[in-house]
Amino acid sequence: MATRAGSHAGRGFRYQDAVAASLAVEGFVGQFGYGSIVPEGGDDLELRTASARTLAQVKSRRDHMGPFSARSVAGFVMKMWDGKGLQPDDQFLLVLESNVGERRAAIRQLQDLSAYPTVVVELKGRKGLAGLIARTKVLVLPDPRGSAVAQISAKQACTFFEAEMYFADLLGVVGHLSDENGTRAANAYLGLALSDIQRRFDALQPLMTSAVVEAALTEGFCSAVDFLTPDEDPLFYLGVDAQASHVAAGLVVERPELRAAVLEGLESRRNALIHGVSGSGKSAVLWEAAYASRHAVRWFQVQRLPPAAIASLVQLARSRRATADAPVGFIIDDVGRGFSEGWTALTAEVNRTPGLLLLASVREEDRYPLVDSRRAAQVKVQGDDTLAERVWRELRDRGQTAWQGWREPWSLAAGHLLEYTHVLTQGHRLSETLHAQVAARINDVTRHDELDVLRTVVCVNAAGCSAEVSELPRVLSKPATTVSLALTRLKDEHLVQDAHDGRMVGLHELRSAELLRLSHEFPPPLLSTTAATAVWLVPASEMSRFLERTLSRHEGCDDEVIEGLALRLKAAPTPALLSAILTGLDRTNAHRVIRLWLQTAEAQAMAKSLQGMPAGLAIGDIEPPDIGPTVPASRRFTEIRTDVIASGLTARFLARLAPSDLRRVLQAASSVGDLTRLMASLLGQVIPTSHLGELTTFPPRSSTRTFKR
Asked: Fewer Cβ within 10 Å of end Cβ, the chain: N or C?
């Protein structure tokens, strides 16, 4: 009899549940001759006909690093053969997520055990071996959900969206039966019969409305994650953001300890937040965890997350009949890229909606401002010697590195994972590769147009933002054909890449930041000039992020960037753009206040672990308790903050902004929400008297204008 431990562990994410539901569907459509499926019966699964049964062991790669070896598969088979309560005519089925010796499998494959000679060799010496082998089959089932959904769609004559809902319902039934069978005697196991499936489908059919299901995706708030299409990206180890397709292709070096921690966080809190410095491999861990749980979780990647999107995402999950046994999950890769407020709102929904999961990654500097981050299971990603050796061995076995050991390249990379993989695969540091590419353009006068385009685009990309391609010819005063040719050459050398929405993005922020540094090594132009030009390329929705990251790192850019912002707002006055500008400048002010305060004697008199207390009291305008250095530290913070508010970036920008331009911004508002967000961005700022006049007289009393709510 199978152990009962598996019947209660990790219900939501088990490959075994997806396999049980998939095999039940195969029986339902007539592909297999089983009449019922018993989860956690005589083995992981028990497949029954009227006169016989097949005992099945199900093995996923979730807790297994690397391919299944012949020896490990032989061990799985022996475990089935040694089970208790076996009957002479029992058949055996071993279900594997990937084939023996393969990292990833693409197709379903059912074979006799005799088709695996390397496994049979490991079984030699077993009594009655020939008879046991004849009764044993191996099923490679890489995507139980996908194959079942396709079969349901054909059988029910429904869309794939509707078939997903049918399958989710079966997953819930399988989970319930597994839990029930964990406490039952062998003669009282419950199963899922063909008639049960028909009854469940008949009950669901009247509820199916494809229009409702698909409408949740048409706004572009999210998209279903494709785990099936591998991307053998030759640039992967040059430093690009990991994607699901890279995991499917086996390019990502596995980190099973971190993967397990993320999955445990999802199971216990339904919300996991992966954090670490840029280039530490956060995205790879995120997609590896999502890939490992794809059989039971319907994953969607969030593309944009305005306030209105939250209700749509929740409705999408409900339309997919999200339950604890068949959850719907949302992925946000890099919360700091404009998703912070949306992450907080989605976290609140996850807390009160069973069946919802949230999986996200965030850079260290973007994690601390997150509200309610304590509600998420937080998993830190960082490099260490164990990981360095594992990555080296993996790449060596694939023939992708010539290094004879891992210590020297790890030392060259200074403990940075993105740099390390580049050194291993290319033989030298990332900065050396990029330096050669920039130098080739500096030294060739016919390629200076490429350099001009590169400087401006990577200035935007280094802040994690995308650049509007259509604005480049006007901003750089170059013909469109010249810009197009330059971009083509830059893309050919993998310095930038097309986001397929009229925007250019970098392969990775660290690459873009290094390109920005190298392309300004020998001015002119000054970095401040490039940054002022770049503000014309940044979408309004990404402007606050661009300003916060650019001006926090490069204080010498202030004057020219403020001038560029004022000119852009004058050319295209909208509440959204002004709100984003004010928010970005205010956040930069906050960075500078903290930086200045930490350098003061009052702050340094506080223990590092306690420095947050006086700062928090000062921000909240709370009188600090007269304890040790707390009072002077808090008062010093208030002094610096007051000075920055009075003369910092936001105040300087508002002083530069003409009252007539503010009036045009207000007149461009199309809804109360536009004005509300604009007013919120002005809270706490020093507003010039002339601007206050514009705000108090808008809209004019004679106006009959109405706003959408």
From this structure: C
